Amino acid sequence: MKNNSYTPCPIDTDNVFLPPELSELQELLSKNVHETWAAGRIADGWKYGPVRNDSTKEHPCLVPYEQLTEREKDYDRETAFQTLKAIVKLGFKIVKE
User: Fold this and answer.
1) Which stretches make up the Ryanodine receptor Ryr domain (predicted)?
2) Which tens digit of pLDDT belongs to each residue from 76-88?
3) Which residue, 34, 89, 20, is CA-closest to 64?
């Protein structure tokens, strides 16, 4: 029998500071994360709807990134920001070629 107890162990990124030049990368990641998520939902039969409804597979964010509210974009930006900070904390360098 599998043990289903799992304790998440997030990476402490409180002391990680990203240089301002990564803001462009943060925005690109934000857009890509949203577009990838939306495409996956649409491929799974989800449709645009006024509110999230799992039983009818409807979600208000199934629109292009540019059509999201600023609040929704900020959510995606924060996700990208925290991901970039975790990458740096893990010892990787982010270099634009």
Assistant:
1) 6-95
2) 999 999 999 999 9
3) 34
